[in-house]
Amino acid sequence: MADFKTHISASTLVGIAYGYWGVTSQSMTLENGILAGGLCSVSGMLPDLDSDGGIPLREISMFTAAVAPMMMLNRFRDYDLSHESMALAAMLIYVVIRFGAFEFFKRFTVHRGMWHSLPAAGVSGLIAYLAMPTTSDAERAYKAVAVVVGFLVHLILDEIWAVEVGVARLRTKKSFGTALKFLGNDAIANVFVYALLFGLCYTAWSDNKIAARLRERAKYDLTQPGWQYTPTSPPSDWTVPQWQAPDFGFNASLPSAERK
């Protein structure tokens, strides 16, 4: 099995290539390219969260708990949360991730179980997608795919290291086939992971509709009845109408005697 340094080195190199591809071929900004590359690099440690302990679990738990609240700041703004509510939500997210989710991995998962699988890679990508800001669906998908790619790099390396090549012989270890899989040996774990995958797919689909409504709402002034549109700048051919005196139905040029 590939060690920690091999996993992180490979996912980092792939992350650099993925970030470069996004900037040069997909019109992504440099900031988005760097962030996607970093997500791919860190995601190379994700499959080892099901290990009993060690570097991957410690590093990922601290990194995710610290970064996830920051990535959700724009989402908090979309829901018009106050600064105090944002701070409270960030603290709750940190506590849930740091002392809830990762404690679950330590207690209720086994190494090379269903977290070492292709559906788990999809779960990781969907979680990242939902945590991203909602300003652009393309950018969200680009960064979420970076997480999936980093996850898959780890699984592929595990399968490669499960093959022993010698002189005139090729032998596979017992661990061969336990990484790139769709189903594990535990039926309950299989049902749980697939239920989580499909649940996150539905949530992401619903979130796209909610995000579209939030972006549409930002174009309107909700303080006025009827959702009146408030343009950010006037059209180029827009002119200020000149004031004209009202016409009350009589000719102001007539002599005063005739008007009587």
Explain the overall architecture.
- There is one protein chain.
- The chain has 260 residues and is mainly alpha-helical.
- It has one domain (4-221).
- Helix content is 61%, strand content 5%.
- It is built from 9 helices and 4 strands, in the order αααααααββαββα.
- It has helices at residues 4-25, 30-43, 55-71, 73-78, 83-108, 118-131, 137-161, 187-217, 256-259; strands at residues 163-166, 169-172, 220-221, 228-229.
- The strands form 2 sheets. A two-stranded antiparallel ribbon has the order 1-2. Strands 3-4 form a two-stranded antiparallel sheet.
- Strand 1 (163-166) and strand 2 form a beta hairpin.
- The longest helix is centred in the C-terminal third of the chain and has 31 residues, at 187-217.
- It starts with a helix and ends with a helix.
Strand order of the largest sheet: 1-2
Shape: globular
Q: What is the terminal-to-terminal distance?
A: 108 Å
- Biggest beta sheet summary: 2 strands, antiparallel
Question: What is the element string, with H for helices and E for strands?
Answer: HHHHHHHEEHEEH
